[in-house]
Design goal:
globular, 478 residues, transferase, transmembrane
Length: 478
């Protein structure tokens, strides 16, 4: 009896750090949502909140772990998503486009073949998505979409319209086929009057599911699963999943699943998952070099991934032909990915636009070759983490939610220094139009990553014991 009482007391004591940390994590996420909704220093709140969660994770891992730790982490992760569900999306209006695309497909029409303002789809309008345009009103927009190449005409065409909450309502969708299937599935179960809530709820559930996957995989690799709170209780994840419902959370889950299966030597399944992830958001294609080897049969995963990605487009190509490209060419041109002129904020500090374009291409090839060379020399999660993070630092995209997969990869790889990159993206997002400031912010994030990486490498070269620097495991990241 005494032994049972002692065991019960020990269990309660081990649960205290998790419960206290969970309360802090939930409070941080609530504060982040409230600050963003009120526009009260939201980016500073995100940075401080992330550092607080990092401190909580570090503190918890210094204490013995209870038997139901993973369950507790997942439970608190669900609580962290609740504040975002209480209001409409905050950081962007992308979720309204998701709702529209799903609704259009349920009607038997392709979102690649029509723009949201097209009068041919007037019957699908409702007051939530179109507060200023009823089904009986004429928008003046008809016919198949045409995306101009002229930058000025493109900017005018893609400007927001006050009659609808859908962004870029005069151009077709940009989202790939698996993302479209996801939108359709959610739309099937969501009444029109619910607006974006269905997508927010599913995105929140996906974030919790990724938490369970990360914690379980960390435990399987004999690492402390409590480090999963850096994703689970992250104010960034709360803001972009349960609140903004960004599809990037689905891409993050698929990327993590691909890395997990790759570590278990399942190249075909890995390729399928990676291809599906790329058909949710194109960025996972950047990870292909990490799964490529110069050895025989070393290209199985990339070939399956590319084949899967291409196969998802076949039904849409058969239905609408070249319209399947949607607004992608216009987006790449408008956002600067096509010519490099308005990207690479770090390189923009020292190079003119033309030289920047060449430097970006050269660096991208060098990073890809390094990832191929590092294949099987380090855990696949580590390669994917720095490869994805390097791509974000190199291209410095405008939208910070692109960094969601990087957060998950940083947790899985045990490379938390890379969390500096998505945080820098939020600060740069708030500095839109100030190119020098954006470049300096991203440069600071790169400096954090390089400093910690150098310290870790120095510790490894000295040989014994754990690597120096910020790491989530006593040895190599998984």
């Amino acid at each position: 009896m005494t032994e049972l009482r002692t065991a019960a007391v020990t269990t309660r004591r081990r649960s205290v750090p998790l419960l206290a940390g969970g309360v802090i994590g939930a409070a941080v996420c609530t504060a982040a949502i409230a600050a963003a909704a009120a526009d009260w220093w939201p980016n500073l709140t995100l940075v401080v909140g992330t550092l607080v969660v990092l401190g909580v994770a570090w503190g918890m891992t210094r204490r013995p772990m209870g038997r139901r730790t993973v369950l507790g982490i997942v439970g608190v992760a669900a609580v962290c998503q609740v504040p975002g569900l209480t209001a409409a999306p905050i950081t962007s209006t992308d979720a309204y486009r998701y709702v529209w695309d799903g609704r259009v497909q349920l009607s038997g029409t392709s979102p690649y073949a029509h723009v949201p303002l097209d009068d041919a789809l007037a019957r699908l309008r409702d007051p939530v998505l179109f507060p200023g345009l009823s089904p009986q009103d004429s928008s003046g927009v008809t016919g198949p979409p045409r995306v101009p190449r002229d930058p000025a005409a493109l900017a005018a065409l893609s400007a927001d319209d006050s009659r609808t909450r859908i962004n870029r309502a005069r151009v077709p969708t940009i989202y790939p086929p698996v993302a479209q299937a996801y939108f359709t599935a959610v739309a099937f179960f969501t009444p029109w009057s619910a607006g974006t809530f269905g997508l927010q709820l599913v995105a929140a559930a996906l974030a919790v599911g990724v938490t369970a996957l990360l914690a379980t995989e960390l435990r399987r690799r004999n690492r402390d699963p409590r480090w999963a709170v850096l994703w689970a209780w992250s104010p960034v994840v709360a803001l972009e999943a349960g609140s903004a419902a960004h599809v990037d959370v689905l891409a993050a889950g698929l990327v993590v699943a691909a890395v997990v299966t790759a570590a278990r030597r399942s190249p075909v399944i890995t390729g399928l998952l990676l291809g599906v992830a790329a058909s949710v958001k194109l960025l996972p294609l950047l990870l292909l070099p990490a799964f490529t080897s110069v050895r025989r049969r070393g290209a199985t995963t990339p070939l399956v991934a590319v084949g899967t990605f291409a196969a998802t487009y076949v039904p849409h190509v058969l239905a609408v032909g070249t319209l399947v490209l949607g607004f992608l060419p216009g987006y790449l041109g408008q956002e600067g990915f096509a010519d490099g002129s308005s990207r690479s904020a770090i390189l923009a500090l020292v190079l003119p636009a033309d030289a920047r374009q060449v430097a970006t291409a050269v660096l991208a090839i060098a990073v890809a070759m390094l990832a191929i060379r590092r294949h099987q020399q380090e855990p696949i999660a580590v390669t994917c983490c720095w490869l994805y993070g390097a791509a974000l630092l190199l291209t410095t995209p405008t939208y910070p939610w692109y960094g969601l997969p990087l957060i998950a990869l940083a947790v899985l790889a045990g490379r938390i220094e890379w969390l500096a990159v998505p945080l820098a993206s939020y600060l740069a997002y708030a500095s839109f139009g100030h190119e020098v400031r954006q470049g300096l912010i991203h440069l600071a994030a790169a400096a954090v990553v390089l400093t910690v990486t150098a310290r870790r490498s120095g510790g490894c070269r000295r040989g014994r014991g754990r690597p120096a620097g910020l790491s989530l495991s006593p040895g190599r990241g998984g």
